[in-house]
Amino acid sequence: MNKNIFFKKIKKISVNEICKKLNIKNFTKKNIYLEDIKTLDNASKKDLTFLHSSKYLRLIPKIKSNFIITSSKFVKYLPNKNILLVNNVLLSVASITELFYPDSLNENFNYRNSSNRNLIKSKSVTIGLNVLLGKNVKIGKNSFIGHNSIIEDNVIIGENCSIGSNVILKKTIIGNNVNILDGAVVGKKGFGFFPQKGKNLRYPHIGMVIIKDNVEIGSNNTIDRGSLANTIIGENTFLDNQVHIAHNVKIGKKLHNSWTGWFCWKLTGW
Question: Would residue 247 show up in a list of annotated catalytic residues for this protein?
Answer without folding.
Answer: yes
